[in-house]
Amino acid sequence: xxxxxxxxxxxxxxxxxxxxxxxxxxxxxxxxxxxxxxxxxxxxxxxxxxxxxxxxxxxxxxxxxxxxxxxxxxxxxxxxxxxxxxxxxxxxxxxxxxxxxxxxxxxxxxxxx
Length: 113
Prior knowledge:
This protein is mostly helical and 113 residues long. It has one domain (28-108). The protein has helices at residues 2-8, 68-94, 99-108, and strands spanning 31-34, 52-55. Helix 2 (68-94) runs antiparallel to helix 3 (99-108). It is globular and about 45 Å long.
C-alpha cells in the first residue's frame, strides 16, 4: 500500500528500497529527522553526527486495522502531515534561517501528529 500511496501522488517508485545506515557512510547530513513510531517493532536509530536533529513520531499507516479505504486514508494523512512539515522547513531554509530558528521549527512538530 505504501507504493500505491506514493504512486497516487505522482512519486516515482522504481528502484525504491530500504537502505541500511551502513550504505550511507559518505553522507554528511545537515538535518536528521526520524519519523518512526514503532515501525515494524524497531526503535528509531540514533544519529550521533553534528546534524540538527528532530523526531517527528508518526504512526505507521500500514499497521492500522481497518478497511482498505481506511488504510489508504491513513497513508494520505501521513503523507499530508509530512508534506506540510517539509514544505515549512524548505520555506524556512529559503529564507536563510539560522540553525537556531531551524531547530526551533523542527522541535515544534515533536508532539504533534
